[in-house]
């Protein structure tokens, strides 16, 4: 196994990690920004007003994009297992 193969696997792992985190992080960012904007307009400073909507939105994002996330991880894992013989020099 050479250095380029290790770097390629590491790069693919970082890319897949970023792709899987993106929907959840973007939803949390948008909802958090909207709630903080609402709080600053109305001057209501309640902690649960920020936490609960973000929790619900992230749960919905996981519900909507969960199947895609799992299929991406399964594809990545299958590709890694398929590359094992080539990485070990067997073919």
Automatic annotation (TrEMBL):
Q: Which UniProt keywords are listed?
A: Bacterial flagellum, Cell membrane, Cell projection, Cilium, Flagellum, Membrane, Transmembrane, Transmembrane helix
* UniProt subcellular location: Cell membrane; Bacterial flagellum basal body
Q: Which InterPro entries match?
A: Bac_export_3 (IPR002191), FliQ (IPR006305)
Q: Which domain of life is it from?
A: Bacteria
Keyword Nucleotide-binding assigned to the entry: answer is no
Membrane-related topology note = Multi-pass membrane protein
Please give the start and end residues of each transmembrane region: 16-39, 51-70
Q: Does the keyword Coiled coil apply?
A: no
Its chief place of residence is membrane
Instruction: Give the UniProt record's GO annotations in the biological process aspect.
Output: bacterial-type flagellum assembly; protein secretion
* Gene Ontology CC, one term: bacterial-type flagellum basal body
Against Pfam families, the record matches this protein to: Bac_export_3
Please state which protein family the record places this protein in. Belongs to the FliQ/MopD/SpaQ family.
| Function summary | Role in flagellar biosynthesis.
Q: Which NCBIfam families does the entry link to?
A: fliQ
Protein name as it appears in the record: Flagellar biosynthetic protein FliQ
Native organism: Conyzicola lurida
